[in-house]
């Protein structure tokens, strides 16, 4: 697994833990649903700005995106 896939799995795990659909996460983060899907599939190279949006939408500290 590469870093994008590991990150995508973490986003998916956190999203499901908050009982959010990809669509709901997209709305809360200001991103679109296909982009969220691409992140979760490990197909997107995510910027720091996108990481910040995801963390805010998930109501977590950004460091939680990297914790095992």
Protein topology:
Layout (H helix, E strand, L loop, with lengths): L2 H15 L4 H8 L3 H8 L7 H11 L10
Helix pairs in contact: 2-3, 2-4
**Going by CATH, what is the homologous superfamily?**
lambda repressor-like DNA-binding domains
The computed structural class is mainly alpha
The DSSP helix count reads 4
Strand composition percent: under 5%
- What order do the SSEs take from the amino end to the carboxyl end, as H and E? HHHH
- Cα radius of gyration in angstroms: 10 Å
What oligomeric state is this? Answer: single chain
Report, as a whole number of angstroms, the end-to-end distance.
14 Å
Number of strands: 0
Biggest sheet features: none
The percent of residues in helical segments reads 55-70%
Low-pLDDT sequence parts: none
What is the class in the CATH system? Mainly Alpha
For this structure, the CATH topology is 434 Repressor (Amino-terminal Domain)
Count of spatially separate domains: 1
Q: Please tell me what the overall shape is.
A: globular
Overall mean pLDDT: 97
Level-2 CATH architecture: Orthogonal Bundle
Keywords: DNA-binding, Transcription, Transcription regulation
GO molecular function: DNA binding; DNA-binding transcription factor activity
Domain HTH cro/C1-type: 11-65
GO cellular component, one term: cytosol
């Amino acid at each position: 697994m590469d870093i994008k896939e590991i990150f995508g799995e973490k986003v998916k795990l956190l999203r499901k833990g908050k009982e959010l659909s990809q669509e709901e996460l997209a709305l809360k983060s200001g991103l679109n649903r296909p982009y969220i899907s691409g992140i979760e599939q490990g197909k997107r190279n995510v910027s720091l700005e996108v990481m910040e949006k995801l963390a805010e939408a998930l109501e977590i500290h950004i460091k939680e995106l990297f914790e095992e």
